Amino acid sequence: MSEFLFFTIGTMLGGLIGVVLMCSLQINRLSEREEVDYAKTKRTDTFPS
Question: Which residues contact 40 (CB under 8 A, 6 or more apart)?
Fold first, then answer.
Protein backbone atom coordinates (compact mmCIF):
# COMPACT_ATOMS: atom_id res chain seq x y z
CA MET A 1 0.00 0.00 0.00
CA SER A 2 2.82 2.42 0.81
CA GLU A 3 4.43 1.75 -2.59
CA PHE A 4 1.21 2.77 -4.33
CA LEU A 5 1.07 5.91 -2.19
CA PHE A 6 4.67 6.83 -3.11
CA PHE A 7 3.92 6.14 -6.78
CA THR A 8 0.84 8.38 -6.67
CA ILE A 9 2.67 11.21 -4.90
CA GLY A 10 5.62 10.94 -7.29
CA THR A 11 3.37 10.98 -10.33
CA MET A 12 1.49 14.03 -9.07
CA LEU A 13 4.68 15.93 -8.20
CA GLY A 14 6.30 15.00 -11.51
CA GLY A 15 3.25 16.14 -13.46
CA LEU A 16 3.07 19.39 -11.53
CA ILE A 17 6.76 20.14 -12.10
CA GLY A 18 6.39 19.32 -15.79
CA VAL A 19 3.39 21.63 -16.22
CA VAL A 20 5.13 24.49 -14.38
CA LEU A 21 8.26 24.05 -16.51
CA MET A 22 6.31 24.00 -19.79
CA CYS A 23 4.27 27.06 -18.78
CA SER A 24 7.44 28.95 -17.85
CA LEU A 25 9.04 28.17 -21.20
CA GLN A 26 5.89 29.18 -23.09
CA ILE A 27 5.62 32.49 -21.20
CA ASN A 28 9.28 33.22 -22.00
CA ARG A 29 8.65 32.48 -25.68
CA LEU A 30 5.60 34.75 -25.83
CA SER A 31 7.43 37.66 -24.19
CA GLU A 32 10.25 37.38 -26.75
CA ARG A 33 7.75 37.62 -29.62
CA GLU A 34 6.11 40.76 -28.17
CA GLU A 35 9.51 42.46 -27.83
CA VAL A 36 10.33 41.75 -31.48
CA ASP A 37 6.96 43.13 -32.65
CA TYR A 38 7.41 46.22 -30.49
CA ALA A 39 10.96 46.74 -31.79
CA LYS A 40 9.75 46.53 -35.39
CA THR A 41 7.14 49.26 -34.87
CA LYS A 42 9.63 51.45 -33.00
CA ARG A 43 12.28 51.56 -35.73
CA THR A 44 12.56 54.91 -37.53
CA ASP A 45 13.63 53.53 -40.91
CA THR A 46 10.19 52.01 -41.51
CA PHE A 47 8.46 55.42 -41.75
CA PRO A 48 8.26 57.12 -45.15
CA SER A 49 10.26 60.31 -45.43
Answer: 46
Helix segments in 1-49, DSSP class H: 2-42
Residue 32 to residues 6, 11, 42, Cα–Cα distance (Å): 39, 32, 15
**What's the length of the chain?**
49
Distance CA 26, CA 19 (A): 11
Phi and psi for 24 in degrees, rounded to 5? -65, -40
31 has pLDDT over 80? no
pTM of the model: 0.53
